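Q: Could you write out the predicted structure for this multi-component system? I'm mainly interested in how the pieces pack against one another.
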Amino acid sequence: MWPYAIRRVLGAIPTLLIIIALTFFMMHIAPGGPFDAQRHLPPEIEHNVRAAYHLDEPVWEQFWFYLRNLMHGDLGPSYKNHDFTVTQLIEVGLPVSARLGISAIILAIALGITLGTVAALNQNKGTDYGVMGLAMIGITIPTFVTAPVLALIFGIYGLHFFGYDFFLPAGGWNEGALANMVLPVTVLALPQIAIISRLVRGSMVEVLRSNYVRTARAKGLPNHIVIFRHALRAALLPVVSYLGPAIAGLLTGSLIVETIFGIPGIGRYFVEGAINRDYTLVMGVVICYAAFVILLNLLADILYALLDPRVRFA
Amino acid sequence: MSAPGITTRNTETIERALDIEGRSLWTDARRRLVKNRAALTSIIMLTVIALVAIFAPFVWPYGYADIDYANIACAPGWWPGANVPCYAGGYHIFGMDQNGRDLFVRVLYGARVSLSVGVVATLVSLLIGVTYGAVAGFVGGRLDELMMRFVDVLYSLPFIFFVIVLMVVFNQNFFLLFVAIGAVEWLTMARIVRGQTLSIKQKEFIEAARAAGVGPLANIRHHVIPNVLGPVVVYVTLTIPTVILSESFLSFLGLGVQEPLTSLGVLIADGKDHMETAPWMLIFPAVFMAVTLFCFNFIGDGLRDALDPKDR
């Protein structure tokens, strides 16, 4: 396993380099620059500002400059968030996004696998249709609908039981207080629960029909052992390969959840940075995302091989 | 060309004589799809939605940009507890939006835009993905490795950043929105097609075609692509809803369709801002979109079951 992992990590270096180059040149091809504004700066000042950020040099020179700094772990200054370096912005925002993302993914895995298994065990019965119908709703309703609606219901109208009023904060981070995390985590987890339960149901239905499960039943193993030890293990394979990129996406935050609930994560930087031509900030978050994707795909592949004895590390 | 003609006629006579019905993969799949109640209902509903979206605006008395200043954001007449129903100047069954435009006709226009973005962007992704995947799988070797490595690289780029940059580079153009989304969604298609091509490449009929002197491009076009269509069709029906969601997300960010034209995503984004005072502005577009996506997903699932060789 270890030689395989090391080879994969080494193989990721050229991939990352290509991603860095692609992102860098795509950003610079886009018309406009970080210091364009409605009100034009005097030419001398604009010249000085551009010189300070090396923007007056040829794009190739800028690229080398960026790469050299990157090798020293320096992601450069943010062009729009003055007085902050990109590293500082990510250091502050990533833990927030990651905390929400990890909570959402844990919730999604637990609920998704349970619901999917229950649906598969009751294939074509009421429970199955109910769970799959709910999952379909989870997939088809976008987060920018669920987020404001849940905020309105639980944050503003509140729940009223037996004369008590329950309110959840409709926004804000409050240093990651549990109450503030409930709504954003729910919104993030809903579509994931839906997707995971559909995946689990699909593969579980197939696995339950396979010969080795029939053998396990035939030799008299109790039902829970057949399901949990034999069937579920194989049924989780598609989930494992789905989770790699999905976790990377959740860790790096969601623009919609972060803007609607006012959470200081890094999800919004992808869009803000691209629209503002904040070159370094976009590069920083894209590198961060790509590194997560590569790493989590590697982990997914390793986990895949551990779950499925037919897969060998090649 | 005469020999196959004769054999076809012969088989036809035999079939007629024996009353045998030909069962190709596709007729089989169609029969099973029609038997699937959820999929059939979805097909009918989707057809109705599409027809209404295309034709109803022609006969509807209000245009999508007609503003009625007297009735800004007022409730539909049948809304429970609506004190000032919008009877002024006619009957607005979905109520009015924040600028006093008839919401029903705007939802229809939004559905038109969303559906056409969904279909066209998916076709773009189909074109790129199938060509790319078939070539990579068919040629194999170093080229395959290189091409699939490139797909891996693009996979690790965040989708949204990609589309935003494309939109910014090419200005916000309605047609480029199609292309931009399609240009991002082809990756999975390419992987599926490549995998299928790899297994089909081993089959005898490909070798026979090659032995008969069919060039690689003609071979891909006539022999490989028709045989990978099954999984591709399934993936297409599942891509359309994804694309509609992506478009609505872009519109939500203000990067999609521009006013006064609209899409379901724009309507939902507007509705979200007014959901406390005018909930119909959120409910109708959201339900319309959810139903559309529901239909596509059910059709996709139905097709997958219908085309699954294991279930035969």
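A: Regarding packing and overall arrangement: The first strand of chain A starts at residue 159 and ends at 161.
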